[in-house]
Amino acid sequence: MAQQKEKAPFIKVPTDKTGGFQTMPTDSSRRLSDKQVRIELCTEADAEEIAEGLYLCFPPSWWATKEPPELRPPHTTRIRRMAKRLTPALRPALSPHTHFVKAVLVATGEMVGLVCWTGPGNPGIHCALARSAVAYYGWQAKMGWSDEEVAEMWSHVSDEGWNGVIGKNDEVRRGVFGAEPHWFLAPLMTWPDYQGRGIGSRLLKWAIDQADQTDPVTPLYLESAPSARPVYMHYGFVPLGEYNMVRRGPAIVRGLEADEEKEGQEWAQERKVDADEERVN
Ligand SMILES: CC(C)(COP(=O)(O)OP(=O)(O)OC[C@H]1O[C@@H](n2cnc3c(N)ncnc32)[C@H](O)[C@@H]1OP(=O)(O)O)[C@@H](O)C(=O)NCCC(=O)NCCS
C-alpha cells in the first residue's frame, strides 16, 4: 500500500502549444467544499449531460480535428448522437470495467465535472470512445443497433480523429503495459465556471485512492492535453512521451522547465502578497 508524499506546489509546463494557458494550483478561497459537491457514478440517464459537457469543456481547436465544422449537423443532433455513442459504455452490464464518475452540485443537482475511468480487468486495451469499440466490444449486437443507426451516429465525425489517433494511442498503451492490469483515464473535464475549484482533484482521487490500496499499487495511465499536464504531475503522474503519462504510486513530479522551482517561489510570493492585500482591504 502506498504512502502519500509531499507534492510539488507549482508546476510549469511549456505552453507554446496552448497559447500560454496552463492549469494553476487551486486557490483555497475558491475551493468547493464536500458539502457543496458530491461525487457519484453516472447512469445511462446522464448521457446527454455528459455529451453537452464534452462540447463545452474541450476547445474548438480540439473539436475541429474530431468533428470537422463542414460535416457538423445542428448542435442538438451532435449531442443526441454523442449521447447514443456513449450509452454502451455507461451500461454496467455491457461495460463492467468502465466507470463514468460525475461531480454534482449539491444545491442544484447540476453536473459540473466528469471523468471516465476504465479499471483493471478490462478485456484488452481498447478505448471505449473509439468508433472501433463498437465492433471490438460487440456493442452493435448487444445494443440491437442496425448498420444504418451505427452509420448515422458516426456520420459527421473524422475517422482519423475517432479511430486513427485513438487507435495509435491504444497501441502505445499496449506497448507500455502489455497484459499488466492498470487504470485508464479518458476523458477528464470540469465545466468552465467550476475549473480551479477542486473538482478535478476529487475525480482523479476516485481511482487513485483505489489504485494505491492494492499491493503492489496499480498503475494509472492517461493521455494529457498539454495545458492539463500540471494537474496530473501534481498527482504523481510521470510524463512518458509528449502526451502520455503513468502513475505508479505517489511521487513528487516537478515541471519540465529548469526554472520552474524559481517561478513557483515567485508565484507563491505573489499569492501571499495578494492574500495579504485582501486581508488589509
Ligand atoms: C484539466 C481540468 C480537468 C482540471 O480540473 P479542475 O477542476 O479545474 O482541477 P482542480 O481545481 O481540482 O485542480 C486539480 C489539482 O491540480 C492542482 N494544480 C493545477 N495546476 C497546477 C500547477 N500548475 N502546479 C501544481 N498543481 C496544480 C490543483 O491545485 C489541484 O490540486 P489540489 O486539490 O491538491 O490543490 C480542467 O481544467 C478542464 O476541464 N479542462 C478542459 C478539459 C481538459 O483539458 N481536460 C483534460 C484533458 S487531458
UniProtKB/TrEMBL annotation:
It holds the Pfam family Acetyltransf_10. SUPFAM superfamilies: Acyl-CoA N-acyltransferases (Nat) (SSF55729). Keywords: Acyltransferase, Transferase. Residues 264-281 have a biased composition (Basic and acidic residues). PROSITE patterns: GNAT. Residues 1-30, 257-281 are annotated as: Disordered. One of its GO terms (molecular function) is acyltransferase activity, transferring groups other than amino-acyl groups. InterPro entries: Acyl_CoA_acyltransferase, GNAT_dom, Trichothecene_AcTrans. This is Acyl-CoA N-acyltransferase.
